[in-house]
Design goal:
Largest sheet: 6 strands, antiparallel
Order of helices and strands: EHEEHHEEHEEHEEEEHHEEHEEHEHHH
Radius of gyration: 22 Å
Number of helices: 12
Structural class: alpha/beta
CATH class of the largest domain: Alpha Beta
CATH topology of the largest domain: FAD/NAD(P)-binding domain
CATH superfamily of the largest domain: FAD/NAD(P)-binding domain
Shape: globular
Strand order of the largest sheet: 10-11-12-13-9-14
Length: about 425
C-alpha cells in the first residue's frame, strides 16, 4: 500500500491530504463537488465554511486559541490560509470565506502528490489505507455503508446534545450527590428546586429565544427522547416536572424532604471534570441557555463548556469504534476524521484531520502512531472522543474542561486558563513536532 485514499475535501480531508502529501505519500482525494452538493454547500471550493466566517477566539489563553496554536505547530494548511485572509473581528480569527476556501483548494490542487477525483463514493474502500472525512452531511449511500460496517447503533444522523458544565463550577452548597432511590453509587449531582424557584425557571424557559434552524438541519421526526426541553416545557407547567426534572426517589439532605423538582447532572468523562445536564437537549440561543440555565439552583455560576445543540450531524460512536490514533478498531486501515469522527467545530475538524493524516502515514510506514498528551488541547479532545467511559456520546468541541487539572489549583479562571495553555505550549516547545 503506497497510497492513501481520502474521502471528503472539507477542512479535515484537506489537512489530512497535506500531512500525507508533504511526507511524500501519494494521495487520492475523493470529493463529490461539483457533481453533487449537500443542501449546505454553495461553492465548488474545498474546505467551504458554511455557517460562519469565524474560527473563534485567537488568544492563546482560550480553548479555541490554544487549539489553533497547536495546529500551527503541525503546519496547518487551514490556518495558513486563515492568517492570509483574516478580517477584523475583535479577539476572534475571522476570514473572508471565499478566499479562505480558494487558497486551500489551490494548495491541494497544485500539490504534485495529490490526485483529485470528482466522484461520489458509495462504499468504504478496502484496497488501501483510507481516511473517511465526509462531514456532517455525509452522502446517504456512503452513510448507509458506514452504518452497516460499524453496526447500525453506532452511527447517528442527528445531534441532540445537552449542555455540559465544569464540575468545579457547580455550587455544592445547593446541589447534592445521589441516585434515585439510592440505586447506584451517588452517580448524579442533583440541583433541587422549591416551588417558587421552579415556576420562575419554567416561565423564563418557555419564553426564551430559540436559535434559527436551517432547512437542512430540521429532522424528519423529533422523538420524545430528544425533544427540546423548551418545547416539552410548553406543554404545561408540570410537564418537565413529571419528565426530566422529576424529583421522585430523591431526598434533599438539607431539608430532609423531596424537592419540588430536580435537575440531574451526569458525569461526562473519566476524570469527572465535566457534567452533562440530563434531558436538556435544546435549540435555545447560547446566550439564552446561559441566562436561563443559570437559574437552576447550584448552577448560578456554572461554567458552560458546551451549549446544547440540535442539528443534522452524521457522526459515529467514536468511544466504541475508534482507537486513539483515529483508526477503526474493527479495521485499523480505516481512519475517521472531521465531524464524522465526533468532534464539533471547524478547527476541531481540521485538527482531527491533521492527526488522522499523520497516523495514516505511520500506519503506512509501520511506525508508532502520534498520540498527543492529554494536557494538550488536541490530545485532550481526541482522548475525549475515544474515551470508552463516555456514555450517550455526543460531539465535542475544544474546551478547557476536557484537560486534566493543574497540579496546583488556581481559582482565578483567567490565570488558570493561561497556565493550562502554557503547560501545552511548553510540551510542544520541548518536543519538536
Amino acid at each position: 500500500m503506497e497510497k492513501v485514499k481520502i474521502i471528503g475535501a472539507g477542512l479535515a480531508g484537506c489537512e489530512a491530504a497535506m500531512q500525507l502529501a508533504n511526507r511524500g505519500v501519494k494521495v487520492e482525494l475523493y470529493e463529490m463537488k461539483p457533481k453533487k452538493k449537500t443542501p449546505a454547500h454553495k461553492s465548488d471550493f474545498f474546505a467551504e465554511l458554511v455557517c460562519s466566517n469565524s474560527l473563534k477566539a485567537a488568544r492563546i489563553d482560550s480553548a479555541a486559541g490554544l487549539l489553533k496554536e497547536e495546529m500551527r505547530r503541525f503546519g496547518s494548511v487551514c490556518l495558513k490560509s486563515a492568517d492570509s485572509c483574516s478580517v477584523a473581528a475583535g479577539g476572534a480569527l475571522a476570514v473572508d470565506r471565499d478566499i479562505f476556501a480558494e487558497n486551500i483548494t489551490n494548495a491541494i490542487k497544485n500539490h504534485p502528490n495529490i490526485e483529485i477525483f470528482e466522484e461520489v463514493i458509495e462504499k468504504i474502500p478496502e484496497d488501501s489505507i483510507v481516511i473517511i472525512a465526509s462531514g456532517p452531511l455525509t452522502d446517504s449511500l456512503l452513510a448507509e455503508d458506514i452504518k452497516k460496517y460499524t453496526d447500525s447503533e453506532n452511527l447517528s444522523f442527528y445531534d441532540a446534545a445537552a449542555p455540559i458544565v465544569t464540575a468545579d463550577s457547580i455550587n455544592m452548597e445547593k446541589a447534592f450527590f445521589a441516585s434515585r432511590y439510592g440505586k447506584g453509587d451517588d452517580d448524579y449531582i442533583n440541583c433541587p428546586f422549591n416551588k417558587e424557584e421552579y415556576e420562575a425557571f419554567h416561565n423564563e424557559l418557555i419564553n426564551a429565544e430559540s436559535a434559527p434552524v436551517h432547512e437542512f438541519d430540521k429532522p424528519v421526526t423529533v422523538y420524545e427522547g430528544c425533544m427540546p426541553i423548551e418545547i416539552l416545557a410548553k406543554r404545561g407547567l408540570d410537564s418537565i416536572r413529571f419528565g426530566p426534572l422529576k424529583p421522585v426517589g430523591l431526598t434533599d439532605p438539607r431539608t430532609g424532604h423531596r424537592p419540588w423538582a430536580a435537575v440531574q447532572l451526569r458525569r461526562e468523562n473519566a476524570n469527572s471534570s465535566l457534567y452533562n445536564i440530563v434531558g436538556f437537549q435544546t435549540n435555545l440561543k447560547f446566550g439564552e441557555q446561559k441566562r436561563v440555565f443559570s437559574m437552576i439552583p447550584g448552577l448560578e455560576n456554572a461554567e458552560f463548556m458546551r451549549y446544547g445543540v440540535m442539528h443534522r450531524n452524521t457522526f459515529i460512536n467514536s468511544p466504541r469504534l475508534l482507537n486513539r490514533d483515529l483508526s477503526l478498531k474493527k479495521n485499523n486501515n480505516i481512519f475517521f476524521a472531521g465531524q464524522l469522527s465526533g468532534v464539533e467545530g471547524y478547527m476541531e475538524s481540521a485538527a482531527s484531520g491533521i492527526i488522522a493524516g499523520i497516523n495514516a502515514y505511520a500506519k503506512l510506514k509501520g511506525e508508532n502512531p502520534t498520540i498527543l498528551p492529554e494536557f494538550t488541547m488536541i490530545g485532550a479532545l481526541l482522548n475525549y472522543i475515544c474515551d470508552e467511559t463516555v456514555s450517550n456520546f455526543q460531539p465535542m468541541g475544544a474546551n478547557f474542561g476536557v484537560l486534566p487539572p493543574l497540579e496546583t489549583k488556581i481559582r482565578d479562571k483567567k490565570e488558570r486558563y493561561k497556565a493550562l495553555a502554557e503547560r501545552s505550549m511548553n510540551w510542544f516547545d520541548t518536543n519538536k513536532i
